[in-house]
Amino acid sequence: MSVVLITGCSSGFGELIARTLATHGHRAYASMRGVSGRNAEAARRLTEWAASAHVPLSVVELDVTSDTSVREAVEHIQSTDGDVDVVVNNAASSSRGPLEAFSIAQMAALLDVNVLGGMRVNKAVLPAMRARGAGLIIWVSSTLGRVLVGGGLYPASKWAVEGFAESLHHQVAPFGIEVVILEPGSFPTPSTSNAMRAEDQAITDAYAAVPTPARNRQLPTDGSYQPPDPQEVADAVLEIVQIPAGQRPLRRVVGPQHTDGVPAYNQAYEQLRQHMAEVLRRPDQAVTWGPASDRR
Ligand SMILES: NC(=O)c1ccc[n+]([C@@H]2O[C@H](COP(=O)([O-])OP(=O)(O)OC[C@H]3O[C@@H](n4cnc5c(N)ncnc54)[C@H](OP(=O)(O)O)[C@@H]3O)[C@@H](O)[C@H]2O)c1
Prior knowledge:
Blueprint: E1 3-6, H1 12-23, E2 27-32, H2 40-53, E3 57-61, H3 67-81, E4 86-89, E5 95-96, H4 104-132, E6 135-140, H5 153-172, E7 177-184, E8 196-197, H6 201-206, H7 231-242, E9 251-254, H8 262-281
Parallel strand pairs: 1-2, 1-4, 2-3, 4-6, 5-8, 6-7, 7-9
Helix pairs in contact: 1-7, 3-4, 4-5
The structure holds NADP nicotinamide-adenine-dinucleotide phosphate.
The site of NADP nicotinamide-adenine-dinucleotide phosphate has 29 residues, from helix 1.
């Protein structure tokens, strides 16, 4: 049984992940912002479900953009159940519109949720994980953050997630802490309806005639189309949590749509990364971190 903190549990994958982990006996802290405000109904729904299903799930307030909110949530868990064993950085916002049409303030706000939000949570749990020499951080990225098909603010933020998560992986692995980057393809969740819209309409209009892969997509209308089930993502998280420590993969792709070739890409990337690491170990490639005067 692990103590698991999941962010963004008011809907979509987050809610399913919390329910799935709790159903399998893990102590699930289903966090969300606005527990007594915007998400009061979602919080009530999950709390009532947990009570009727007799599963160890609690809803906790956590806004990933607030240092105070993150700290208070982690302190609450520590004082109730001890240290957090597993974090699932799931909370994020998607975006709609060409990159140029977002203000810098909008870009900063989206990056604050999608990228720094996860880092806020990680920084709150890492000291205890390092002290114990154990822990698991699962970061929900996207195959769109690996392969920038049409580009955009959201895919760019997920590319940044990949960078932060992988950097963390290399740096915390020596402490016995694992990082897993979960890369879902496309699933029907509320994410698109909640997307941040680019605020400059004139620039958005200027891009309207530019063809994008998604704009030309036509789903079959004869009833043959079966949308992928978001539960697949929750099941993948459960599987990762239950893999014995030290054996978890760095990346895990999940889903039938928009995932083609991504596992092979990840494998090729990993081979290249290992090659680069070999090269950097050669004496003639040594990187010197001392003051500039030492390097002359
Ligand atoms: N659906 C897909 O096809 C897909 C594919 C690949 C990856 N993903 C990723 O999967 C994750 C979950 O998305 P989803 O598809 O399940 O969409 P979703 O239902 O919209 O879930 C996003 C969650 O993030 C929360 N959130 C946003 N800002 C927050 C903040 N400041 N603090 C705390 N929570 C915040 C939302 O809460 P509020 O209700 O309060 O806004 C919501 O619960 C995201 O990381 C997304 O990028 C989704």
